[in-house]
Write a sequence for this structure.
């Protein structure tokens, strides 16, 4: 009798008034009214299709045979910036951090610069900045409030009122998914998996002087990041930590826009892995030493195909002395510019001589963020592509080099990647579009 009552009760629950008029007619149809699956191509990025390739040198490299092998690896589809991040693009990040600090200071005196309640009337702690409110940088009251963002009087040059770049600190969060995956028992509190970071984000402009002893590079230190002439040149003086912070900001900047329009979040922007970088640099050409193929570094007219240190140190013979404007040389077959020369590029991978031996053949990746008290060997991060001051060997798509994660150089920049969410962008899609 008890079993009959239980079944009857279940039948009542499933046939109650709340279930009358269902559009699925009792069938399994999935959750309806989901957002459109279309994923727009990010502006300025190139689509790289999924594929497999032989990672590593296509010829013998006796000197580096212990840390570079050849193996077949496979990667999902992703987007990559068609050029390195430029000074003007990175300056947008700098200005955003500057303006966020200014709004935080102004909000203490003017409630219009922050929201203290959400859309449902619940208090926000801390308040959310209002980016629609205009900052009057030259206003009499604002000048006094914002004075702490500027250099103090005794540190000014010719009494110029300039932003104190030491104040430009970006605070952000990441989730330690690797640690979460290793926690099979679920013993780690969720709060411990959320990592808080902060970093100074202004480029180290003194790298131009520091990198070259007995060499006159003061004009580059003074003007390279700010003069309009260099707006579309690749940003340099950015260490690995700053490059990662930029990508976190870039992701959240886009997602805040999408959230305001009730659209799904975008995939994260990141530094490329070693494998992603090499796959993209090859441009679909198998076993070629350079992004344009090879084995020569000149075209049929005798012109160099990249910005590097040719011949016996004739820096200008390739058309540039230092860096050159992004996209000056022809792209590879994927449409990517400067994958060899101009500036070397950070990847997200830690450098290990034996990486090719222990890495998985499915989207190989080795990440390790060293702490300040870790030995220097753990702070090495892979850089690829060679730069304006390097000889031709470092321009090969398979050449591995490294630099320390907290070190900024006048010849290292970066570009971003974004994993594509699916097999291929032509799966059931219409014409391509942009945000």
């Amino acid at each position: 009798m008890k079993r009959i009552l239980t079944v009857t009760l279940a039948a009542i629950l499933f046939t109650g008034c709340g279930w009358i008029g269902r559009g699925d007619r009792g069938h399994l149809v999935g959750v309806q009214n989901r957002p459109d699956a279309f994923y727009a191509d990010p502006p300025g990025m190139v689509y790289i299709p999924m594929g497999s390739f032989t990672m590593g040198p296509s010829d013998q490299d006796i000197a580096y045979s212990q840390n570079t092998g050849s193996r077949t690896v496979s990667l999902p589809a992703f987007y990559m910036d068609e050029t390195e991040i430029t000074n003007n693009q990175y300056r947008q990040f700098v200005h955003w951090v500057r303006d966020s600090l200014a709004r935080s200071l102004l909000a203490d005196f003017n409630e219009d610069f922050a929201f203290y309640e959400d859309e449902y009337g619940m208090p926000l702690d801390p308040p959310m900045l209002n980016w629609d409110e205009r900052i009057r940088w030259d206003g009499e009251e604002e000048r006094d409030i914002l004075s702490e963002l500027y250099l103090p009087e005794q540190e000014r040059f010719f009494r110029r009122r300039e932003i104190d770049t030491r104040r430009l600190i970006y605070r952000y969060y990441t989730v330690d998914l690797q640690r979460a995956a290793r926690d099979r028992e679920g013993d780690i509190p969720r709060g411990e998996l959320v990592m808080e970071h902060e970093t100074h984000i202004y480029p180290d402009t003194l790298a131009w002087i520091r990198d070259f002893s007995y060499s006159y590079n003061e004009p580059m230190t003074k003007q390279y990041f700010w003069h309009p002439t260099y707006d579309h040149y690749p940003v340099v003086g950015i260490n690995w930590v700053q490059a990662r912070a930029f990508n976190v900001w870039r992701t959240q900047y886009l997602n805040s826009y999408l959230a305001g329009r009730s659209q799904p979040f975008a995939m994260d922007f990141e530094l490329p892995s070693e494998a992603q970088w090499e796959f993209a640099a090859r441009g679909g050409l198998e076993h070629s030493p350079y992004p344009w193929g090879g084995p020569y570094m000149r075209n049929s007219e005798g012109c160099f195909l990249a910005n590097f240190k040719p011949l016996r140190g004739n820096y200008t013979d390739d058309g540039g002395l230092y860096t050159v404007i992004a996209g000056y040389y022809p792209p590879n077959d994927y449409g990517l510019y400067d994958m060899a020369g101009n500036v070397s590029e950070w990847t997200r991978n830690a450098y290990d001589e034996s990486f090719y031996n222990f890495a998985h053949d499915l989207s190989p990746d080795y990440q390790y963020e060293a702490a300040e008290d870790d030995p220097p060997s753990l702070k090495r991060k892979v850089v690829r592509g060679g730069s304006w001051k390097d000889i031709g060997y470092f321009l090969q798509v398979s050449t591995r080099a490294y630099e320390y994660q907290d070190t900024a150089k006048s010849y290292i920049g970066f570009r971003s990647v974004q994993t594509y969410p699916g097999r291929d962008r032509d799966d059931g899609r219409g014409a391509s579009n942009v945000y």
